[in-house]
Amino acid sequence: MGTAKIGGDKNKIMTTEPLVRLDQVSKIYPKLTSSQDRLRALWGVLKGQEGYSGYPVLQDISLEVYRGETLGIIGENGAGKSTLLKHVAGVVKPSAGKVQVSGRIGALLELGAGFHPEYTGRENLQLSGALMGMSDAELLDKLGGIIEFADIGSYIDEPIKHYSSGMVVRLGFALITALQPDLLITDEVLAVGDESFQKKCIRWMEGYLGNGGTLLLCSHSMFHVQKLCQKACWIKEGRMVSYGEAFQVTQEYLAYHEQKSRQEAQPQAPLSSAAYQVKALWLGDNENNELPLVSMGQDFKISGELYSPDDRVPTVAVGIIRANGTEVYGFTSDIDGFALNRRESKRFVFALTFPRLSLLPGRYKLCAHAMDPEGIRLFDVVEREFQVVGRSRELGVCRLEHQWHGGLP
Ligand SMILES: Nc1ncnc2c1ncn2[C@@H]1O[C@H](COP(=O)(O)OP(=O)(O)OP(=O)(O)O)[C@@H](O)[C@H]1O
């Protein structure tokens, strides 16, 4: 899909020692459905036999992450992704196997969870910073920067218990930025704080990855994993089913979902006015047609309009999907380096042409997604069906240029 902006240097030089090594890690949680189960589990803990008669959440997971690598963990709800991250963060101990982690870890998991409610923000920063391994001198040097990043004004000298949850998250994230972690662990992509704080976090993340940072990310967004990660690992029911190049693994995962025919229309949450939105999408020239017909081999034009709540130039992602769910092609304006045109305040338009359309006859769906200017978060999607018509006896979804040559030399 082109070169990723974040974590873009996909050929970083790796050192020989991994920052993270998981060796046949398994985690078993006790079954706690009856009071008898609870007693048995408690007894097991007292005897140091954790996981007695439990259910496995992770089984035989082995992987290595080297400095400068970005690894995405994907899988369905409850697959064990967060549990895996928690093992690396050291929050959870494995029931079997070994977890080895070296270097400073910045875990963006439960931001602010370690803060003490009675202490002020400043006191908590000092305390947590020390716990994270910062020296007094380092803390003193960085405190101003952390407070500036958190940007919570005079609340910094108020006890944390007076903070909103957003303020706690701001402080937690600001602390991680100052930690300059060797390894960053995050659940989903920076879904923290309000809009403007999220942007600040994304910019920081860009810088971190651009400077060769190491990332362990768990996400349900294949787009984010493809964009941010070099490698991906697919966890299914606690087991690793695939591990390798991010694009390859995410494709396998998407194909699995297609097979599961999970294509019932997802109920869309109402969009807030703070969201980037697709206001209009036109296919071809005949915009009044219910089902636009496009001739194979002819130019196919689409155009649309996006709303940008902060008047910054949004990104549009365009995807073509065959009626049976097969993903054919996808790209974004930011991958192509195209900036949408401002038509009026907060309204941006785009138009594009697929010259000599190479799709084979059949029904397709064109999707336009509204994304933030960083091309990181998807906000809104509008889909339109269209039909490609033409005479062709070729097989598949699209025509590939090809040439026949003479016989054997
Ligand atoms: N502390 C716990 N005690 C018992 N079971 C747990 C505990 N934490 C997680 N689990 C179970 O472990 C399984 C994996 O959970 P986990 O949160 O790792 O999944 P996940 O892949 O991150 O899911 P999601 O995508 O929904 O966040 C789930 O069945 C969950 O209920």
TrEMBL record:
Belongs to the ABC transporter superfamily. It comes from Nitrosococcus halophilus (strain Nc4). Coiled coil: none annotated. Pfam families: ABC_tran. GO terms for cellular component: membrane. GO terms for molecular function: ABC-type transporter activity; ATP binding; ATP hydrolysis activity. Residues 20-262 form the ABC transporter domain. SUPFAM superfamilies: P-loop containing nucleoside triphosphate hydrolases. InterPro entries: AAA+_ATPase, ABC_transporter-like_ATP-bd, ABC_transpr_TagH-like, Bact_Polysacc_Export_ATP-bd, P-loop_NTPase, Wzt_C. This is ABC transporter related protein. SMART domains: AAA (SM00382). Keywords: ATP-binding, Nucleotide-binding, Transport.
